[in-house]
Specification:
Layout lengths: L4 E4 L25 E6 L7 E6 L4 E7 L2 E6 L4 E6 L4 E5 L4 E5 L6 E6 L8 E2 L2 H15 L1
Antiparallel strand pairs: 1-7, 2-9, 3-8, 3-10, 4-7, 4-9, 5-6, 5-8
The protein binds dTDP-4-keto-6-deoxyglucose (T46).
The site of dTDP-4-keto-6-deoxyglucose has 10 residues, from strand 2, strand 3 and strand 4.
């Protein structure tokens, strides 16, 4: 199954312009407990480089673009987030990296849990070990 799970948001645009409305458990497949956004990222900066033990998120670039790399410990895929009407669902135990932010990029992220630093796995070797043992456990 693809690691890249894109969600098309319905656009409620009319002759005045566009509008996207996002509701928990409807457009977004979880209860939204937290919203944050990443902006004014300096040129050449990379972000992310971690995974979460138990967190679902939907990321959308509401302006500009960035390249998201997803990795489940055995496979890597990447996708450009470059549309205000397309969200990327990032589930548990996916290593994510964000590259090539455009100057105007504003990335909005909707999260299923409150902020919890203990949910982060910030070392790739630890992530890989946990991901491998989970995948073996599922076989
Ligand atoms: C993710 C990607 C897409 C908070 O205090 N509260 C928050 O809700 C968040 C998200 C961050 N922080 C603090 C923790 C750090 O001191 O803000 C600082 C920067 O966070 P971090 O280095 O984790 O940021 P990114 O851009 O590498 O990653 C963020 C999210 O943390 C992460 O969950 O999936 O965006």
């Amino acid at each position: 199954m693809s690691l890249v799970k894109l969600i098309d948001f319905p656009s409620l645009g009319d002759e005045r312009g566009s509008l996207v409305a996002l509701e928990s458990n409807k457009d977004i497949p979880f209860d939204i407990k937290r919203v944050y956004y990443i902006f004014c990222t300096h040129q050449g900066v990379v972000r992310g480089f971690h995974a979460h033990k138990k967190l679902q998120q939907v990321a959308v670039c509401i302006t500009g673009k960035c390249r998201m790399v997803l990795d489940n410990g055995t496979r890597k895929e990447e996708v450009w987030l470059d549309s205000a009407s397309k969200g990327l669902l990032i589930e548990d135990m996916i290593w994510r990296e964000m590259h090539d932010f455009s100057n105007d990029c504003v990335m909005l992220v909707l999260a299923s849990e409150h902020y919890d630093e203990s949910d982060y796995i910030r070392e790739y070797s630890s992530f890989k070990n946990i991901a491998m043992s989970l995948q073996i456990g599922m076989k």
